[in-house]
Amino acid sequence: MCYTILCMILRERGDIVDINVGDVLVMKKNHPGCGSNRMKVLRVGADFKLMCMGCGHTFMTARSKCEKKIKSVIRDIAEEKG
Ligand SMILES: [Zn+2]
What DSSP string runs through 22-76? Predict the structure, then answer.
């Protein structure tokens, strides 16, 4: 596992860094169903498709709405090298 937390970059300019498929979003609020606050990005666009890492529940959410709730982004650096 080679995860790096990119939260430093996140709010520097009041904006969210590019979110890519495969990133894990750490949300400010926990998922009510299971208590996990980590969501894996399955699809990006005007809407994000996210999967809760706790319970596997998938859902769509508007990008602008979702970005406000992101605390940090975890990206697998090893994956980018490959
Ligand atoms: Zn969940």
Answer: T-EEEESS--TTT---EEEEEE-SSEEEEEETTT--EEEEEHHHHHTTEEEEEEE
